[in-house]
Amino acid sequence: MSQEVILINDVPGLGEQGKKVKVSDGYARNYLLPRKLATAVTAATLRQLEKKRAEYDARRIRIREEAEALAAKLNETELSIKAKAGNEGKIFGSVTAQHVLQALKDAKINLEKHQVVLENPIKELGTYSVAIKLTSEVHTSLKINVVAE
Fold it and tell me: Quick check: 143 pLDDT over 90?
Protein backbone atom coordinates (compact mmCIF):
# COMPACT_ATOMS: atom_id res chain seq x y z
CA MET A 1 0.00 0.00 0.00
CA SER A 2 1.13 3.53 -0.66
CA GLN A 3 -0.14 7.03 -0.32
CA GLU A 4 0.66 10.46 -1.70
CA VAL A 5 2.05 13.18 0.53
CA ILE A 6 3.27 16.73 0.02
CA LEU A 7 6.72 17.41 1.45
CA ILE A 8 6.81 20.35 3.86
CA ASN A 9 10.63 20.26 4.12
CA ASP A 10 13.41 18.79 1.98
CA VAL A 11 13.84 15.08 2.67
CA PRO A 12 17.17 13.60 1.48
CA GLY A 13 16.65 10.74 -0.93
CA LEU A 14 12.93 11.50 -1.35
CA GLY A 15 12.40 15.01 -2.65
CA GLU A 16 12.39 18.73 -2.11
CA GLN A 17 9.99 20.99 -0.29
CA GLY A 18 6.65 21.37 -2.07
CA LYS A 19 6.88 18.15 -4.10
CA LYS A 20 4.07 15.61 -4.19
CA VAL A 21 5.52 12.10 -3.74
CA LYS A 22 4.18 8.60 -3.35
CA VAL A 23 5.48 6.69 -0.29
CA SER A 24 4.51 3.59 1.64
CA ASP A 25 1.84 3.95 4.32
CA GLY A 26 4.24 2.98 7.10
CA TYR A 27 6.90 5.49 6.05
CA ALA A 28 4.34 8.28 5.92
CA ARG A 29 2.58 7.30 9.17
CA ASN A 30 5.69 6.51 11.24
CA TYR A 31 8.29 8.94 9.93
CA LEU A 32 7.14 11.78 7.66
CA LEU A 33 3.88 12.84 9.29
CA PRO A 34 4.96 12.74 12.99
CA ARG A 35 8.13 14.73 12.22
CA LYS A 36 6.07 17.25 10.22
CA LEU A 37 8.18 16.63 7.12
CA ALA A 38 5.07 16.00 5.00
CA THR A 39 1.32 16.37 4.97
CA ALA A 40 -1.40 14.22 3.43
CA VAL A 41 -2.71 15.22 -0.01
CA THR A 42 -6.15 16.82 0.21
CA ALA A 43 -7.93 19.47 -1.82
CA ALA A 44 -7.03 22.08 0.82
CA THR A 45 -3.32 21.15 0.93
CA LEU A 46 -3.14 21.21 -2.89
CA ARG A 47 -4.61 24.75 -2.93
CA GLN A 48 -2.15 25.77 -0.22
CA LEU A 49 0.72 24.25 -2.19
CA GLU A 50 -0.20 26.26 -5.28
CA LYS A 51 -0.22 29.48 -3.22
CA LYS A 52 3.22 28.72 -1.75
CA ARG A 53 4.80 27.46 -4.99
CA ALA A 54 6.41 30.84 -5.80
CA GLU A 55 7.76 31.12 -2.22
CA TYR A 56 9.27 27.62 -2.45
CA ASP A 57 10.85 28.37 -5.82
CA ALA A 58 12.35 31.66 -4.59
CA ARG A 59 13.78 29.89 -1.52
CA ARG A 60 15.25 27.10 -3.66
CA ILE A 61 16.90 29.64 -6.01
CA ARG A 62 18.37 31.58 -3.05
CA ILE A 63 19.76 28.40 -1.47
CA ARG A 64 21.25 27.30 -4.80
CA GLU A 65 22.96 30.68 -5.31
CA GLU A 66 24.43 30.58 -1.80
CA ALA A 67 25.64 27.00 -2.35
CA GLU A 68 27.27 27.92 -5.68
CA ALA A 69 29.09 30.84 -4.04
CA LEU A 70 30.31 28.56 -1.25
CA ALA A 71 31.33 25.93 -3.82
CA ALA A 72 33.49 28.49 -5.63
CA LYS A 73 35.12 29.45 -2.32
CA LEU A 74 35.74 25.79 -1.41
CA ASN A 75 37.25 25.09 -4.86
CA GLU A 76 39.89 27.75 -4.19
CA THR A 77 40.53 26.63 -0.60
CA GLU A 78 43.39 24.33 0.27
CA LEU A 79 43.46 23.00 3.84
CA SER A 80 46.35 21.54 5.75
CA ILE A 81 45.69 18.91 8.41
CA LYS A 82 48.46 17.83 10.77
CA ALA A 83 48.66 14.22 11.89
CA LYS A 84 51.20 12.09 13.71
CA ALA A 85 52.90 9.78 11.26
CA GLY A 86 55.59 7.12 11.13
CA ASN A 87 58.72 7.07 8.98
CA GLU A 88 56.96 5.52 5.98
CA GLY A 89 54.27 8.23 5.78
CA LYS A 90 51.58 6.15 7.47
CA ILE A 91 49.40 8.04 9.93
CA PHE A 92 48.85 6.81 13.48
CA GLY A 93 45.07 6.56 13.34
CA SER A 94 43.38 8.29 10.41
CA VAL A 95 41.99 11.58 9.15
CA THR A 96 38.19 11.44 9.11
CA ALA A 97 35.36 13.73 8.05
CA GLN A 98 35.36 15.13 11.60
CA HIS A 99 38.97 16.31 11.14
CA VAL A 100 38.04 17.91 7.80
CA LEU A 101 35.08 19.69 9.45
CA GLN A 102 37.34 21.03 12.20
CA ALA A 103 39.86 22.32 9.65
CA LEU A 104 37.02 24.00 7.75
CA LYS A 105 35.72 25.53 10.97
CA ASP A 106 39.21 26.91 11.68
CA ALA A 107 39.08 28.48 8.19
CA LYS A 108 35.70 30.02 9.14
CA ILE A 109 33.65 27.78 6.83
CA ASN A 110 30.78 25.94 8.52
CA LEU A 111 29.45 22.73 7.01
CA GLU A 112 27.43 19.81 8.31
CA LYS A 113 28.97 16.36 8.74
CA HIS A 114 26.77 14.82 6.04
CA GLN A 115 28.06 17.34 3.49
CA VAL A 116 31.63 15.99 3.65
CA VAL A 117 31.78 12.84 1.52
CA LEU A 118 34.88 10.92 2.55
CA GLU A 119 34.60 7.37 1.22
CA ASN A 120 37.40 5.96 3.38
CA PRO A 121 39.42 7.57 6.17
CA ILE A 122 42.79 8.96 5.06
CA LYS A 123 45.64 6.82 6.44
CA GLU A 124 48.72 8.24 4.71
CA LEU A 125 50.39 11.61 4.30
CA GLY A 126 49.79 13.41 1.03
CA THR A 127 47.37 15.56 -0.93
CA TYR A 128 43.76 14.45 -1.30
CA SER A 129 40.60 15.70 -2.96
CA VAL A 130 37.53 15.39 -0.73
CA ALA A 131 34.04 15.59 -2.24
CA ILE A 132 31.68 18.15 -0.72
CA LYS A 133 27.92 17.85 -1.32
CA LEU A 134 26.36 21.23 -0.52
CA THR A 135 22.88 20.51 -1.90
CA SER A 136 21.38 17.78 -4.03
CA GLU A 137 22.40 19.78 -7.12
CA VAL A 138 25.62 21.54 -6.05
CA HIS A 139 28.76 19.44 -5.54
CA THR A 140 32.39 20.48 -5.32
CA SER A 141 35.73 19.20 -4.10
CA LEU A 142 38.16 20.43 -1.50
CA LYS A 143 41.92 19.98 -1.61
CA ILE A 144 43.45 18.69 1.63
CA ASN A 145 47.12 18.31 2.46
CA VAL A 146 47.83 15.83 5.23
CA VAL A 147 51.21 16.69 6.74
CA ALA A 148 53.24 15.25 9.61
CA GLU A 149 53.21 17.05 12.95
Answer: yes
Q: Summarize the confidence of residues 51-57 as an average pLDDT.
A: 84
Q: How confident is the model at residue 39 (pLDDT cuts 50, 70, 90)?
A: very high
What CATH number does the domain located at 71-148 have? 3.10.430.100
Instruction: Kindly report the CATH number that applies to the domain delimited by 2-65.
Output: 3.40.5.10
Model confidence, pTM:
0.70
Residue-range domain boundaries for the chain: 2-65, 71-148
Evaluate whether 74 touches 130 at the Cβ level (below 8 Å). no
Q: Would the CA dihedral through 64, 27, 112, 94 be positive or negative?
A: negative
